[in-house]
Write a structure and sequence with these properties.
This protein is mainly α and about 270 residues long. The protein has helices spanning about 10-40, 45-50, 55-75, 90-120, 130-150, 160, 165-200, 215-240, 255-270. Helix content is about 70%, strand content about 0%. The protein is built from nine helices and no strands.
Length: about 270
């Protein structure tokens, strides 16, 4: 089945090839590191994976992982979901790509926790890093998902009053909402920039046995993503300005495609 490309066009095939190649390289390097733990005198473990300085093999592995995630996020962003708002412009593309990255990272959290459960309860060898790694990844899932939700206009909105307003009042309320987001972003960056910079410059760690630099990375990332959310909100305001007013009913929350899939599944079982 031919899938319609949203923005990659002829670059879709090279991006897919790059994704497959770097995913394969990452897997091979990971298997090599696992084998090294069994045979090497001083093997690399998860402690070394977050301290790659002076360890070329770890650096190459992390680089391949990062590139494969970038290629996968871009490739998966080139298709539109059944209930998704298609990207329109550069900022929408950034938000959708990071949204796809959040979806991939959610799968990583599942794998990490599955590994921890098996290691702890089957082999009685709990890890020191699984809980903190899942928290680390989960924090970025939360941030990227918020940006994606803003692009999709999926945040909670109460339409019972909004739909009764005339067009000019709706646009006024939209402007006020965006101005509040801008003011919040300015206040957050103004108050948190120095602290985020200090944490990043000293690469503040979590203070545990594995000791990942979660505060030193997440705090600056929080400010960056909030700024992107603010930009996306302004972009949405301009993109939706000339759209015709929409009325909302409870029926809008019904996913007809999902209902049809459930009906088809039940018919196949019967």
């Amino acid at each position: 089945m031919q899938i319609e490309s949203l923005f990659l066009g002829r670059m879709r095939a090279p991006i897919k090839t790059g994704m497959i190649v770097f995913c394969g390289l990452t897997l091979l390097l990971y298997l090599f590191l696992v084998g090294q733990r069994m045979f090497a005198v001083e093997p690399y473990g998860m402690f070394e994976m977050i301290r790659p300085a002076g360890k070329p093999l770890v650096q190459v592995t992390l680089t391949c992982l990062a590139i494969s995630l970038i290629f996968a996020s871009i490739f998966l962003s080139d298709t539109k979901g059944a209930i998704e708002t298609p990207p329109d412009g550069f900022f929408d593309l950034v938000s959708v790509v990071l949204g796809r990255l959040a979806m991939i990272m959610t799968a990583f959290i599942v794998l990490v926790m599955f590994y921890e459960v098996v290691s702890r309860y089957v082999f009685s060898r709990p890890t020191l890093w699984a809980n903190e790694l899942s928290l680390w990844i989960g924090s970025f899932v939360f941030l990227f998902a918020g940006l994606y939700a803003m692009q999709q206009r999926s945040h909670i909105r109460i339409y019972i009053i909004y739909d009764t307003m005339p067009w000019w009042m709706q646009k006024t309320s939209d402007c006020i909402s965006v101005l509040l987001i801008v003011a919040f972003t300015f206040a957050l960056v103004w108050g948190g920039y120095t602290d985020a910079e200090n944490r990043f410059m000293r690469m503040e760690t979590f203070g545990t046995a594995w000791d990942p630099p979660i505060p030193g990375i997440v705090k600056p990332a929080l400010l960056i993503i909030v700024v992107l959310v603010c930009i996306q909100a302004v972009s949405n305001l301009f993109a939706d300005w000339n759209k015709a007013p929409q009325s909302h009913t409870p029926a809008d929350e019904i996913d007809e495609i999902e209902i049809e899939n459930i009906r088809r599944t039940l018919e196949e079982k019967n």
